[in-house]
Amino acid sequence: MAARFRTYADFWPFYLGEHAKPATRTVHYVGTIASALTLVVAIATGNWWWLIAVPFFGYGPAWFGHFFIERNKPATFQAPFWSLISDYRMCWLFLTGRLGRELMKYQIRG
Questions:
Q1: How many domains does one find in the chain?
Q2: What is the pLDDT of residues 46-97, one digit of tens each?
Q3: Residue 29 clears pLDDT 60, i.e. is over it
Q4: What are the tens digits of pLDDT across the range 2-21?
């Protein structure tokens, strides 16, 4: 993990800043939800081959968003575990209508 992030509390505002554009966040939501649903399918069916698809569904749209919309490097490259947690956290905050408040807290505008 990058030395610049000593705690998750330090990483979270950076993560949000790397997802400033609404379109970037949208493709993240699509990927996060698709990967979670694929994991559920793997568990529900007992067909563990679905697990191979989980990272493709999760990271594919997210990395597309970073490279072609946001034009930055995915946070995964600096802090993989915290980035994964943050993907789900950001998606949950969006789904529950609380992401806007979090973005305002850190003065992130898209």
A1: 1
A2: 999 999 999 999 999 999 999 999 999 999 999 999 999 999 999 999 999 9
A3: yes
A4: 458 899 999 999 999 999 99
> Is 110 a member of any domain?
no
Q: Which two tokens stand for residue 59?
A: 């990271």
> Cβ neighbours of residue 110 under 8 Å, at least 6 residues apart?
20, 21, 22, 25, 103
Is residue 2 assigned to a domain?
no
Q: Mind spelling out the 3-state secondary structure of 22-63? A: HHHHHHHHHHHHHHHHHHHHHHHHCCCCHHHHHHHHHHHHHH
In a domain, 3, yes or no: no
Q: Which domain holds residue 91?
A: 8-105
